[in-house]
Amino acid sequence: MKEVPTGKKLREGYTTGSCATAATKAALTALITGVAQTDATIYLPIKRFATFHIESCEVTDQMATASVIKDAGDDPDATHGALIIAAVSWINEPGIILDGGVGVGRVTKEGLPVPVGEAAINPVPRKMIGETAEAVLKEYGIDKRIKIIISVPDGEEMAKKTLNGRLGIIGGISILGTRGIVVPFSTAAYKASIVQAISVARASHCEHIVITTGGRSEKYAMKQFPELPEEAFVEMGDFVGFTLKQCKRQGIKKVSMVGMMGKFSKVAQGIMMVHSKSAPIDFNFLATVASESGADDSLVEEIKNANTASQVGDMMVAHGYLPFFEQLCDYCCHFALQEVGGGLVVDTSLYTLKGEFLGKAVRQDGID
After folding, report:
1. Which of 244, 237, 233, 174 has the alpha carbon at shortest distance from 201?
2. Distances (CA, A) of 244 to 159, 200, 249, 332, 342
3. E strand residue ranges, 32-78
4. Which CATH architecture group holds 13-182?
5. Radius of gyration of the chain (CA)
6. Taking the model in full, what pTM does it have?
7. Is residue 2's pLDDT more than 50?
8. Per-residue pLDDT for 249 more than 50?
């Protein structure tokens, strides 16, 4: 993953959908004119034009190919630097046929915006590519029909750094984008992936979802709930409240929250966006919970002066105050239900960084 510069305004990039559209325009223009293209200008969904450098362009009588290297700007995007290739050829069949080639995933599970069996080219990029191709054909007065194949040579390897496998997208990356641009650290993009993951789980008939703050806690969760299918596990990152609301909105009956002391000590206070910059650890709160759990005054004072939430957890384990973790989990469940207005069964489990189970609590349906 590339490094992200600090101390300056972050630079926008372009989506895989925009890159595929630009490559398609260049390839089709080359096919019609016989002239290799060096750039392509397209109209983005956010209602502005963008010009793309064409990395390579080759043309014969029946087919042309063009490629664009994806620039994700300053966003730490797994597909930054991807070579996206469009191959356009004449066909006798009616309409414009669009499909994915090497490195573009194929959908194998219900719940995604693309039907099972089709290439993972999302609706907006499909529309962009189709409308751009139609405009080029019209500009040159061409009545012939075409086939467009989008490929990403390194797409299968890049997909390992994405959620595609979990979502049932096999063999490569997805061609994505609703706005045409990539906004660095876009919360909208992450939230969209959460919504999609829950949709796939529901389409797989999951009524019990396990939400975790990251890959490590998800690994612990999978060991805790071996009976659940892979689709039932959703990485929510810092977006606890958003994920809980989406679970309720999509008809999930039970939500299990699995995480570690740092972020879940914030959830236990009712904080539903747990990024370290937006919500620092409140050691006075943890000291209060410790006191409620039977800790003596000297230990309570130590907790107030602790450096990390994990250190607090270690203190409680060392002194044998395990009810502390159950109390913390119970607070998490209470505020989770309060966030969504009840209507769910919520349980919370806490683990150490090394994967040692600390405690669990469950709350049924309503809120106190």
Report:
1. 233
2. 27, 16, 9, 12, 11
3. 39-43, 49-53, 56-59, 63-69
4. 2-Layer Sandwich (3.30)
5. 25
6. 0.73
7. no
8. yes
